[in-house]
């Protein structure tokens, strides 16, 4: 994907003509203090604060870093209020919302995934306290299991993620993880660094018998949105020669399936049974429960591989460890984990040289979307979503429109 714009849109996505170009990284926003910043006088006191001339945007998390031009446009349209780190802690945030500390704000803006989540999950306790004026919650990141998007929608709030900005970076990382499951890269890398020369020799001698090329193998994608489609393009017939299959809640158009040589499976069980490597790349479970469990793993093709670049909460890691230890799953690669920053101890043991069969698990630190280009896109796309909705247009990347209250 080329990157002529701040937000790395896939080639099939129309790029807003108004999206400005900016250097990366950009200098800090002038006069932006680390905490408690606002583009005007504090709200909640004085007659002029009760009827603001511009919509108020509540900015949670770090200051803008990469897109000063867009931020200048953004802050000219809205009164941007950024609570302090202390005010973003759950208890203090609840108090602030109850006392209407920031007035009748119209949007919540979270441009960075690493910050802005200090208050924990956005559930009924927080959402019920939001003023009726809130129309949009625009956030960095692709996953949204940390926010009750149905409840937000029922309150009339559009939730927008930024998965579009992370799609290429996540897809690239997924390719590396898929290769790892076929070539046992953790074993090869750990053995090369071992002070014991026999570890090197053992890996050189034994890894060959456990390794395979990708060509002709079935790649099963759970989720076929922007990330899934890019993984298919990178690993499919035109590149590594894998045969692409997918399962999603909505079947994609025939033209897209043909372009990516992708076959649709109407059930997860059918996809698991057909796949040599399963990649979990869906942002959330339809019912909020794990997708990969002891029950669903019973459908896995014996010896298949498993990759998770989606959400750690979508996998029962005990069940996955059982499947790897028992040989049902021959190798796994996980970038996301159910109890981050802690990784599952049995899976960690399977990733080490001391394991009975080394190299069957690759573990990384939620790095798949972590590039400068992704964060440039997170900022840009979050601002563009808010500008579109508060300007009377349509959101660029909404995820909860089916729950939105109609008025």
Quick structural overview:
The protein is 33% helix and 12% strand. It is built from 15 helices and twelve strands.
Summarize the helices and strands and which ones pair or pack:
Blueprint (H helix, E strand, L loop, with lengths): L46 H4 L5 E4 L8 H10 L1 E3 L8 H9 L8 E4 L13 H4 L8 E4 L9 H6 L3 E3 L2 H21 L1 H9 L3 H10 L11 E5 L3 H10 L7 E5 L6 H6 L2 E3 L3 H7 L2 E4 L13 H4 L6 E5 L8 H9 L3 E6 L10 H6 L10 E3 L8 H19 L17
Helix pairs in contact: 2-15, 6-9, 6-15, 7-8
The total tally of domains equals: 2
CATH architecture heading of the largest domain: 3-Layer(aba) Sandwich
Q: What is the strand tally?
A: 12
List SSEs in N-to-C order.
Answer: HEHEHEHEHEHHHEHEHEHEHEHEHEH
Strand content: 5-15%
Inertia-based shape: elongated
What class would the helix/strand composition place it in?
alpha/beta
Question: How many whole angstroms does the radius of gyration measure?
Answer: 23 Å
Number of separate helices: 15
The largest sheet, given as strand count, sense and whether it forms a barrel, is: 7 strands, parallel
CATH superfamily of the largest domain: NAD(P)-binding Rossmann-like Domain
Task: Write down the CATH topology of the largest domain.
Answer: Rossmann fold
Helical content stands at 25-40%
Low-confidence stretches: 1-49
The main sheet orders its strands as: 8-7-6-9-10-11-12
Distance between the termini: 39 Å
Q: Look at the structure and give the CATH class of the largest domain.
A: Alpha Beta
Mean pLDDT: 86
Overview of the structural elements:
This protein is an alpha/beta fold. It has two domains: 47-164 and 371-403, Rossmann fold, CATH 3.40.50; 167-363, NAD(P)-binding Rossmann-like Domain (Rossmann fold, 3-Layer(aba) Sandwich). It has helices at 47-50, 68-77, 90-98, 124-127, 149-154, 163-183, 185-193, 197-206, 226-235, 254-259, 268-274, 294-297, 317-325, 345-350, 372-390, and strands at 56-59, 79-81, 107-110, 136-139, 158-160, 218-222, 243-247, 262-264, 277-280, 304-308, 329-334, 361-363. The strands form two sheets. Strands 8-7-6-9-10-11-12 form a seven-stranded parallel β-sheet, with helices on both faces. It has a five-stranded parallel β-sheet with strand order 2-1-3-4-5. Helix 4 links the parallel strand 3 and strand 4 (136-139). Helix 2 (68-77) runs parallel beside helix 15 (372-390), helix 6 (163-183) packs across helix 9 and helix 7 packs antiparallel against helix 8 (197-206). The longest helix is centred in the middle third of the chain and has 21 residues, at 163-183. The protein starts with 46 loop residues before the first helix and ends in a 17-residue tail after the last helix. Residues 1-49 have low confidence and may be disordered.
């Amino acid at each position: 994907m080329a990157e002529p714009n701040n937000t790395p849109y896939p080639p099939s996505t129309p790029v807003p003509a108004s999206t400005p170009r900016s250097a990366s990284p950009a200098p800090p926003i002038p006069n932006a203090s680390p905490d408690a910043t606002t583009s005007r006088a504090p709200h909640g006191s004085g007659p002029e604060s009760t009827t603001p001339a511009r919509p108020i945007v509540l900015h949670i998390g770090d200051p803008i870093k990469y897109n000063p031009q867009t931020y200048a446009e953004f802050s000219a349209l809205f009164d941007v209020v950024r609570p302090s780190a202390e005010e973003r802690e759950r208890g203090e945030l609840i108090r602030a919302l109850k006392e209407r500390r920031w007035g009748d704000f119209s949007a919540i803006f979270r441009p960075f995934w690493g910050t802005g989540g200090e208050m924990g999950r956005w559930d009924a306790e927080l959402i019920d306290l939001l003023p009726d004026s809130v129309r949009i919650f625009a956030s960095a990141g692709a996953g949204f299991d940390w926010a009750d998007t149905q409840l937000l929608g029922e309150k009339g709030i559009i939730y927008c993620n930024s998965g579009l900005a992370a799609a290429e970076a996540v897809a690239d990382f997924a390719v590396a993880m898929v290769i790892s499951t076929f070539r046992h890269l953790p074993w090869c890398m750990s053995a090369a660094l071992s002070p014991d020369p026999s570890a090197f020799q053992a890996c050189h001698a034994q890894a060959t018998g456990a390794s395979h090329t990708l060509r002709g193998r079935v790649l099963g994608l759970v989720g076929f949105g922007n990330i899934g489609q890019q993984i298919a393009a990178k690993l499919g017939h035109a590149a590594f020669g894998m045969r692409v299959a997918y399962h999603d809640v909505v079947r994609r158009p025939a033209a897209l399936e043909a372009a990516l040589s992708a076959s649709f499976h109407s059930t997860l069980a059918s996809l698991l049974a057909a796949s040599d490597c399963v990649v979990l790349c869906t942002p959330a479970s339809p019912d909020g429960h794990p997708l990969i469990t002891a029950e669903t793993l019973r459908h896995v093709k014996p010896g298949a591989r498993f990759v998770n670049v989606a959400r750690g909460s979508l996998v029962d890691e005990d069940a996955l460890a059982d499947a790897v230890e028992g040989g049902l799953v021959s190798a796994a690669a996980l970038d996301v984990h159910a109890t981050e920053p802690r990784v599952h101890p049995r899976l960690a043991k399977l990733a080490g040289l001391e394991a009975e069969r080394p190299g069957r698990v690759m573990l990384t630190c939620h790095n798949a979307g972590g590039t400068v280009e992704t964060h440039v896109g997170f900022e840009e796309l979050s601002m563009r979503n808010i500008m579109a909705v508060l300007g009377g247009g349509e959101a660029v990347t909404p995820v909860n429109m089916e729950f939105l209250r109609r008025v």
